[in-house]
Structures are given as structure tokens and as C-alpha cells.
Specification:
Blueprint lengths: L7 E2 L15 H13 L5 E3 L11 H14 L5 E4 L5 H13 L4 E4 L9 H14 L4 E5 L1 H4 L5 H10 L3 E6 L4 H11 L6 E4 L6 H6 L4 E2 L6 H12 L3 H18 L5 H9 L17 H14 L12
Parallel strand pairs: 1-8, 2-3, 3-4, 4-5, 5-6, 6-7, 7-8
Helix pairs in contact: 1-2, 3-4, 9-10, 10-12
Length: about 300
């Protein structure tokens, strides 16, 4: 397997369920193949958007197998985070054995915060596997705040960490600080949060996006324009899609799952209990936002920006 660059766009995809909350592997296969067809640089599964905290280990295994089989060489990054270090190591080993190109790992909140335990958490995962690690810094979901010195220490002492998924808000200042203090070329930085700060993340030096925005073609256009020095185009694309980005950022995954359904990628937008699926009023609002942002566009096809 060729090394993963962790640059560009790595969409984080949903875990589709049928209306009875069973995993829908047929839709999942279709989602992975779609991401390959649009030229994504990789795909991330079993993240927060993938409702990983509501899945059994057997389901994680089936989803990883399906993603790797459908990838056609596209790097599959598997979220393997768990509150227990041993369980994270085991899930990471399973992902590697099934053909994952890397794992995405984030620490969990402890009653007494301890940066040393967080360091040991990543260190033990690295010792358990041979594939690269994406270290996710996402306080909104984890309630864990990884200070800059801790992140820099992780990069300094754990070579397997190849990418920082930088989602500590506001993202641009922390991205700039990381770039200023880590060795040149040591690791890449991909940002998330649905590309909420997308234009500013790229201007701050981020290498791209690893996030669940349901139109990754937009993120690809942003990265291409930025890399070409077309800053006005970056601004125009960002401004055009910002209302949709903001609308999609509502708490939970219901809106994004509904967009995946509308795009013909998932049969259902069912969210697993105790979370809730999209309500009727929000679905109507979503249709209005989509029509305003992408008027008369067949969103079941790859969109052209």
C-alpha cells in the first residue's frame, strides 16, 4: 500500500441505517464508490458523523470490510477511538488487519484531566499498529482540550502521527501556531468542523479538509483554487456555500444524513437512537437552502463548481 499524503480532501462519511436502524452496507458501498469517483484523496469512516459511539464492534468490522472492498485503492481511514486505551488499540489492530490505510484517534474526557495520560494513550496505540495515525483534536465532541505543547510533544515523540485533524476553535490561530512550531514537513494539518472556517483554514496553512460536509466537491474546489493562488475564487466559493455549511452544522448528524439521502447515496436518513432523525420543518428548510445554493441542480450527480 502506497503511503498516504494526508493532503487534499478526505470526506468523513455517514454510517447509513435502514428505517429499523440496521446498518445498510449496500448504501455504504455506494457512498465509498461515489467518493472515489469524484477523486477524493481518501475517505474516513466511523467518525463522529459515522455515529461510531452507537456501533458494535461487529458492525465496525463489517463497515470497515465493506469500505476497503469498495475503495479500489482509495485510502480508507478508520476512526478507532474508544474511552479505553486497550479497546482503542484492539480496534486499531482490527482496522489495520482489514486493510485500513490509517486510523483516526481522539482522546476521551477523564474526570481528572491529565496530559500525560493523553500522551500515553496515543503512544500505546502507535505501539500496537504499523499504519499512520491521524490525531484528532476536537474538543466540541470530546470535552478534551489538547494544549499546543501537548500536540507538539505528540508530533515530536510519536513518528506514526502523520496528520493532525485540527478542530479546536477557532481553528486558524491554532493551525498557524502548529505550523510555526513543528518541524517543516513533520505532519500535515487537515481541518474539519464541516469546513465552517474553510477559507481561513486554508489561508492559515491547512493542507485540506477531513470533514463530513456532504458536498466534498466544494471542498475539492476550494483546495484546488487555494493551491493555484486563486484567492478571489476561494473567497467566492466559500461565500456561495457558507449558508449551506452553516445550516449543515446544526448539532447532530440528521441534516447531513438527509443530504446523503437526497443525493441518492443512502436509502434512508435514519439516525440511531437516542439521537433523532431530521424533523419535517428542518427538512423543508434544507430544501430551501439547497435550492438557493444549487438552483436547478441534480445533486445525485457530482456537482461542478
Amino acid at each position: 500500500m502506497a503511503p498516504v499524503s494526508f493532503k487534499g480532501v478526505f470526506p468523513i462519511v455517514i454510517t447509513p441505517f435502514d428505517d429499523n436502524e440496521n446498518i445498510d452496507l449496500e448504501s455504504f458501498d455506494r457512498i465509498i464508490r461515489f467518493m472515489g469517483s469524484i477523486g477524493a484523496d481518501g475517505v474516513t469512516i466511523l467518525g463522529v458523523l459515522g455515529e461510531s459511539n452507537r456501533l458494535t464492534d461487529k458492525e465496525r468490522e463489517a463497515l470497515t470490510q465493506t469500505a476497503v472492498a469498495a475503495s479500489d485503492g482509495l485510502p480508507i481511514i478508520v476512526g478507532t477511538s474508544h474511552p479505553g486505551t486497550r479497546a482503542t488499540c484492539d480496534l486499531s489492530q482490527m482496522a489495520e488487519a482489514l486493510g485500513a490505510a490509517g486510523v483516526m484517534v481522539t482522546p476521551s474526557r477523564e474526570a481528572v484531566p491529565n496530559p500525560e495520560r493523553i500522551f500515553e494513550y496515543f503512544q500505546r496505540v502507535a505501539q500496537a499498529i504499523s499504519i499512520p495515525i491521524v490525531a484528532q483534536d476536537h474538543p466540541a465532541s470530546t470535552q478534551v482540550h489538547m494544549a499546543l505543547p501537548l500536540v507538539l510533544r505528540l508530533l515530536d515523540e510519536i513518528p506514526q502521527i502523520a496528520c493532525i485533524k485540527q478542530e479546536a476553535t477557532p481553528t486558524p490561530p491554532k493551525t498557524r501556531a502548529l505550523i510555526a512550531q513543528m518541524p517543516t514537513g513533520r505532519a500535515t494539518i487537515l481541518t474539519g468542523l464541516g469546513a465552517l472556517y474553510g477559507q481561513y483554514d486554508l489561508a492559515s496553512g491547512a493542507d485540506g479538509f477531513m470533514t463530513g460536509f456532504a458536498f466534498p466537491e466544494v471542498l475539492q474546489a476550494l483546495v484546488r483554487a487555494h493551491n493555484a493562488g486563486q484567492h478571489e475564487r476561494v473567497h467566492n466559493i466559500y461565500q456561495r456555500f457558507l449558508p449551506l455549511i452553516v445550516f449543515e452544522q446544526q448539532p447532530g448528524v440528521a441534516v447531513r444524513k438527509e443530504i446523503f439521502r437526497l443525493r441518492g447515496l443512502a436509502q434512508s436518513s435514519q439516525v440511531r437512537h437516542p439521537a433523532t432523525s431530521i424533523d419535517a420543518d428542518t427538512a423543508v428548510q434544507l430544501q430551501a437552502v439547497l435550492q438557493t445554493t444549487l438552483p436547478d441542480t441534480d445533486i445525485t450527480q457530482p456537482i461542478s463548481i
